[in-house]
Amino acid sequence: MQLSIKEAAEFVGKGQQYVRVGLQTGRLKFGTAIPKFKDEKDEQARRRAGKHNWDYDIQRIQVEKVRWDNIRRVFKNEIWRNLK
Q1: H helices within the chain, ranges in order?
Q2: 22-55: per-residue pLDDT in tens?
Q3: 10-38 b/e (C-beta count within 10 Å ≥ 16 → b)
Q4: Which of 36, 2, 8, 3 is nearest to 22 (CA)?
Q5: What is the pTM of this model?
Q6: Distance (Å, rounded) from C-alpha 2 to C-alpha 62?
């Protein structure tokens, strides 16, 4: 099942811009951002238009996996902190 930017942002507890930029730069691994521009002239148009020149592919299962990995990491850190 595919998610929108808004749904993915709500799922991970971040803003929509955070998700868009994270996908565009490749820092978020639960989806991909595909630019619609093809040459330098189109790239300049993309900078002016912002989010409207990107297509996003965000799979719910990948977002859930990232979310649970983060939860596991937090609990693991808490357990280690409490053992000290």
Answers
A1: 5-12, 16-25, 40-49, 60-83
A2: 999 999 989 999 887 666 566 666 565 565 678 8
A3: ebbeeeeebbbebbbeeebebbbbeeeee
A4: 8
A5: 0.67
A6: 10
